[in-house]
Here is the input.
Amino acid sequence: MLNADNLGVRRGQRWVLEGLSLQLRAGEVLGVLGPNGAGKSTLLGGLCGELSADAGKVTLDDRALAEWAGVERAKRLAVLPQASTLEFGFSVEQVVGMGRLPHRSGQARDAEVVAAALAATDCAHLQQRSYLALSGGERQRVHLARVLAQLWPDQPGKANGTLLLDEPTSMLDPLHQHTTLQAVRTFAAAGAAVLVILHDLNLAARYCDRILLLEQGRAAALGTPADVLQAARLKQVFGLDVLVQAHPELGHPLIIAR
Here is the structure.
């Protein structure tokens, strides 16, 4: 899977990410939290190779990220950026089908995967719509379906890729915030490793196995939601007074602003 060892990224003379080491594990969702400017999107850029590392290294399946050929890397690593732009009037089905370009699995298999990814993201009813006619939230779900299709397992329940998601719920209504993260959770349960950047502390507490809390480009904490989401630490990093209680039904931390 994907590993970062002492990763650092610099802009000019300033380190915007420094000393980050983490391992993305198969079957796990790792959430990344932090205030604006903490280095969350920089971390994602460094992990996927969009940004060059000024210190440390990133490896994919024990090989340096730069050593992977583009097509082979795309079969193992998919990225959903914070904003995805597309200015052509493709149908939703065609947009999601772009995720299958690295594969040579045949038209019939690609159609099966596209249909499954659309269903997983609650986009099946949009299949024949023009992408340009969609709302912002609908577009966001379609792009999630596209990256899921890119890594969709050849055998049911046998996913083995790494998925990097930058704020996939930012434009979604409450229902689709949960359906989206449940789809991500299900994908991880099939064997994928997932990193997801979020701003909602309660969504992270519910759907993530571990949480990385960033502060000024460095790791303030890394561990289970119960370990990381503590009132004193959240006050220190976000400047927000909160109560942290156990969810009455599910048991994960529930964060309530004072």
In short: DSSP finds nine helices and twelve strands in the chain.
